Structure formats: structure tokens, C-alpha cells
Amino acid sequence: MHKESQMFKDRFWGRTAVITGGASGAGKAAAARLVAEGARVALWDQNQEALIQAQAEVGATSTHVVDVADPLSVQAAAEASHAALSRIDLLVCSAGITGATAPVREYPIDSWNRVISVNLNGVFHACRAIVPFMIANKYGRIVNVASVAGKEGNPNASAYSASKAGVIAFTKSLAKELATTGVLVNAVTPAVFVTPLLEQMPRSQVDFMKAKIPMGRFGEVPEVVAMISWLLSEECSFSTGAVFDISGGRTTY
């Protein structure tokens, strides 16, 4: 257990959470911390083998093979998760892909469509399916994982940048809709973190992004998980529709 989790070991006692992209990276790390701090967690991911391993490692209550780009798959997983957990208090939308690295004039249309479907439509599908459960309980915390690319736009990554900008705008819109319901919705905008997502990018793209971080290093997953955990907690009570930067100084707006 991380020392932070030990400090807040009962912070999520009795709470339940759904985490998309929960079999690896920040999603898996967030699940581990939530479980360590008392929550019961349902993991969603496309990779069944990775889900089984993640469940064993983090102690998740249930796992569900889900394609977040498919609304029927998401709705079925939401209902199954609700049945397994009895309620859904928390949602982390961290499923995402990078897509091709290419200028717009050469960008593969199938890659564009898939990135938008997973990164943006996937957040919409998950929120649409789970928000009704939260409204019924008059309580909820949603954290959507966006990116600094959604603020600045990365060259040769138009689909990824556009999808993450959409996540930011969607978060603000949904938060205003739910502002009086007890359900708070916020986004985080990480810079480059050391996750399996880096392996999908060419070295030139990785070096370019690192060079733009004033602190001169990539972020560590526990750092973004700490921010996500606070946003999911009851301590976060007057922030909604906000975008929380975690970029080593790259984006200070």
C-alpha cells in the first residue's frame, strides 16, 4: 500500500467505482489506490487477459470486457457493474488510444474515426450509462482523463488532440447539467506519463513532448492517481466542470 493510501485508508470506505481502461496504466493504478482506501471497484477494458491479471493484482470486485466505443457494450457493462456493486458512486474514464502519428493531409481516416470513437464517444457512452445511477443516489464523482494535447494540440496527433479537447468541453457541459444533483464532474489534463500508452508512439513524438515539459521529466502514474483520488473523494465538494492540470508546468492555464 502506498504511504498516501495508508494515510487515507478509509477515505472510500463503502464507496463503489467503475474505471474504464482499468486493466493497465493510470486506470489500473487508480483502481489499486481506491481498493486500498476502501472502495469496491469494477474494471472495464477490452483486454480480457489483462483484466483477469489486474483483478488479481488490485483486488477488484468485478471485471467486464467492454468496448467503450460501442454504446450497447457500455450499457450492458454499466448494468452488470451496478448489479455487482449494488450502486455506483465513482467513475473514472481513462480508456484511450493515441492513434496514428501523421499530418492531417495524410492522416488515416480509419484511425481518426477509431480515436474519436474510443477517446471521446467512449467518455460520452460511459457517463450516459452511469449518471442515472448516481442521480438516483444523489451522489457521484466523475473524473474524465483528458490531456494537455486537448488544450494545446500536438502536431501530427490531430485525432488525439481533438478527442481530448472534446473530453474537456464535454466535462464542462455535463458538470453544469448535474451541478445541483450531488454529482460532480471534473477532468484532468496530464502531460506525458510513464504508461503503456507511450509504447504506441514513435520515439520522435515522445522526445518532442518531453522537451515541452519545464520540469524536464515525464510524470509518474502515482502523481496523476493522487489528483484523481482527491477529485473522487468527498473532500472535493465545490469543484465541478473544472480542468486540473498535471503537466510539470507545461500548461499553466
TrEMBL record:
Belongs to the short-chain dehydrogenases/reductases (SDR) family. One of its GO terms (molecular function) is oxidoreductase activity. Gene3D superfamilies: NAD(P)-binding Rossmann-like Domain (3.40.50.720). The lineage of its organism: Bacteria, Pseudomonadati, Pseudomonadota, Gammaproteobacteria, Steroidobacterales. PROSITE patterns: ADH_SHORT (PS00061). Its EC number is 1.1.1.-. Keywords: Oxidoreductase. This is SDR family NAD(P)-dependent oxidoreductase. It comes from the Bacteria. It is an enzyme of class 1 (oxidoreductase).
